[in-house]
Design goal:
Helix content: 40-55%
Mean pLDDT: 78
Number of helices: 1
Structural class: mainly alpha
Distance between the termini: 93 Å
Transmembrane segments: 16-38
Region (Disordered): 43-64
Keywords: Membrane, Transmembrane, Transmembrane helix
Oligomer: single chain
Strand content: under 5%
Order of helices and strands: H
């Protein structure tokens, strides 16, 4: 490094410890979303949607 600290050896860099508070909420949210997706996937298929009903009634708001 310099003349004063020639015998100092850096054994660890703690920047990863400082980054944990920033990444922890993102990992928690991703974990919850993944858990819900897997749980819903294992639950099976939902009920099929009802068939689409077309509107066959005549329009009553048209003026002749």
């Amino acid at each position: 490094m310099n003349d004063r600290f020639d015998d100092v050896v850096v054994l660890a860099d703690h920047s990863i410890l400082l980054a944990i508070p920033a990444f922890l909420p993102a990992f928690l949210i991703a974990g919850v979303v993944l858990f819900i997706a897997v749980r819903d996937r294992r639950a099976g298929a939902d009920e099929p949607a009802p068939p689409h009903v077309t509107d066959t009634a005549p329009d009553t708001d048209e003026e002749n």
